[in-house]
Specification:
Number of helices: 27
Number of domains: 2
Largest sheet: none
Order of helices and strands: HHHHHHHHHHHHHHHHHHHHHHHHHHH
Radius of gyration: 29 Å
Distance between the termini: 125 Å
Number of strands: 0
């Protein structure tokens, strides 16, 4: 009776009530491994900002932001690794009013506002330089995208064309789409938090880790179906966790799989996850499942989509992708996949996509025993995406065509967030690690968005990556410098000429020779301009622009033999063109003067 009525002293009462995340209890082994991994990753970011070259291009995004700001953020990240400071921050987040939904809505609005204020002005990622307004100005824009799926064509060709007819600029339309996608990414991450039943700092860390990937930069106005596919893929990953934890049925995942395929052919990578979930549902409770209408709807949606788009998908994958995205020669796909330089780029890309990606290896290796169902579904989601990441050879290199793998990054982020939440829930003394995880996920992702917005810094970064060290391969260098050159067209002819020269040095191309000739002409350097045009005509004798350039530069130099050569070709190729007419009149005048 005395024990039952004993009053605990206030100091002991407060200590007993203090949350575990404020406890100075020594970290368990898994948490120590996570702390060490985060510390090493953050240290590597400092090294990457200092060492010459771009060997650590996935880590060095801070180098291309204002130095004082970049180092200030780095110091804050280092402070977040100090246990006492991180515990205090985690306790403050726990006490701050507002549930996870309110915080998610605030973060969603903040993400949308940030992306709206930071549109992509560098336009070096993937196909950004040929998408958007430039594509819509073509006579038949859809004919230029034979590999595009119906969802891509609708959202990024038909809809902006219709809106432009009513005075809405395509660039603003795509920025609005991007801002909406950024907000929806945060809400998808909130859905994951709900499935995992998290609160406080842990909930914010999981939300941030899942939502803050490099894919946010695609929401700055990239007019391609792969942008929407990232959100679809992320939502599918969340659905996989929800299905495994009995928080969701199969239909949402089935609809996401269909939507992914309709939007982009890479949506096919969701099919193994859908099949694994379908088999899992049937294996668990076959009789009950077969009696539900939503199961049959979940079965019908992807099947109908594949029947509808199957022939187009087969044609694109066996034709376009086999030619452009599969390593040819030099040992084939496996030799390319396991080449040291490629593995280095894959590691960099994973860190660019998910700033704390290596932590997944540590968390997975030290994870508690998971339910076989959840492990199966996460493996079915990640395995195909990682296989494609390893073996696919994008035309313009991993550092430029990183958007192709943004969906893989979304799945990595969701999987990492799940493992981190399990650790924090299992080891409450480690919950303060949510603070550095949150900071180190958000800061590099937002820095990457800002680099794509800052045209001078973003272009300088792209130039350095192409030039090296390590130098990009010849095809990537040629394409990259040609694309960079167009950013300087009409504004900096010297820089434009340098870009064309570097492109040609990697892979001679008649069109780039013509561009180089134009730059030299504008700089009034007519002799090298004439040589550039002649090289273009030699590579492609039927190229009208090349012979026009030969005629114009030869006129400026007073070079009649080359002028006559140009006229001979233009009479056949462009008999009624103004350059042909002017060149013939010039030769006639020179003939009258006896020259």
């Amino acid at each position: 009776m005395a024990a039952a009525t004993r009053v605990t002293p206030p100091s002991r009462s407060r200590a007993a009530a203090a949350p575990a995340l404020e406890s100075p209890t020594p970290l368990p082994a898994a948490a120590r491994a996570l702390w060490l991994t985060l510390a090493l990753l953050w240290a590597l970011r400092a090294v990457a900002m200092l060492v010459p070259g771009r060997y650590l291009w996935g880590f060095d995004v801070g180098r291309d932001t204002p130095p004082a700001f970049a180092w200030a953020l780095w110091v804050l990240g280092a402070l977040a690794l100090i246990p006492a400071l991180a515990r205090a921050a985690a306790a403050a987040l726990r006490r701050k009013p507002g549930g996870t939904l309110i915080r998610a809505l605030v973060l969603a609005l903040a993400a949308a506002a940030f992306l709206w204020a930071h549109p992509d002005r560098v336009r070096f990622t993937g196909d950004a330089d040929i998408r958007g307004a430039a594509l819509l100005d073509a006579a038949r824009p859809e004919s230029l995208l034979p590999q595009a799926m119906p969802g891509d064509l609708f959202l990024h060709v038909r809809a902006p064309l219709a809106l432009r007819a009513h005075g809405v600029k395509p660039a603003l339309y795509h920025r609005a789409i991007g801002a909406l996608l950024a907000a929806l990414s945060v809400l998808a991450a909130w859905r994951l938090v709900r499935v995992l039943n998290l609160r406080g700092a842990t909930a914010l860390a999981v939300m941030t880790t899942a939502a803050c990937t490099a894919a946010l930069a695609l929401d700055g106005g990239y007019a391609k179906g792969s942008v929407e596919l990232v959100l679809i893929t992320m939502a599918a990953g969340v659905s996989a966790v929800a299905i495994a934890r009995e928080r969701e049925r199969l239909l949402p995942l089935a609809l996401l799989t269909s939507a992914g395929i309709i939007m982009h052919r890479a949506g096919l990578l969701l099919v193994p996850l859908y099949i694994a979930a379908l088999v899992s549902e049937l294996a668990r409770r076959r009789t009950a499942v077969l009696a539900r209408w939503d199961f049959w709807a979940a079965l019908a949606a992807p099947v109908a989509t594949l029947v509808w788009l199957g022939p187009s998908l087969l044609h694109v994958v066996s034709g376009f992708d086999a030619v452009h995205h599969v390593a040819q020669g030099h040992g084939g796909v496996l030799a390319y996949a396991f080449a040291p330089s490629h593995l280095r780029d894959v590691a960099n890309l994973c860190v660019l996509l998910v700033p704390v990606a290596p932590a997944l290896l540590v968390l997975a290796a030290r994870a508690r025993e998971r339910s076989p169902r959840e492990g199966l579904l996460l493996a079915a989601a990640l395995a195909p995406a990682l296989a494609v990441l390893l073996m696919m050879r994008p035309q313009q290199g991993l550092f430029r065509d990183w958007d192709v793998f943004a969906g893989t990054g979304a799945l990595l982020a969701v999987t990492l967030a799940v493992h981190a939440s399990d650790l924090f829930e299992r080891e409450r003394a480690a919950a303060w690690l949510a603070v550095p995880l949150l900071f180190m996920s958000a800061v590099p992702a937002l820095q990457w968005v800002s680099i794509q917005h800052d045209e001078p810094r973003g272009l300088a970064r792209a130039w350095q990556q192409l030039q090296g060290p390590p130098a990009a391969d010849n095809e990537a260098r040629a394409r990259g410098f040609s694309s960079l050159g167009m950013h300087y067209y009409g504004t900096d002819w010297t820089r434009f000429a340098d870009a064309c020269s570097l492109s040609i040095a990697s892979a001679p191309n008649p069109s780039v020779f013509v561009q180089w000739g134009i730059a030299k002409t504008m700089l009034e350097q007519y002799a090298p301009a004439q040589q550039a045009y002649l090289h273009a005509a030699q590579l492609n004798p039927g190229m009208v622009l090349a012979w026009r350039g030969v005629a114009a530069s030869s006129s400026a130099l007073g070079d009649l033999p080359h002028m006559r050569q140009a006229v001979e070709h233009l009479r056949v190729l462009d008999p009624d063109g103004p350059t042909t007419r002017d060149a013939m009149e010039y030769l006639a005048q020179q003939g009258q003067r006896g020259q």
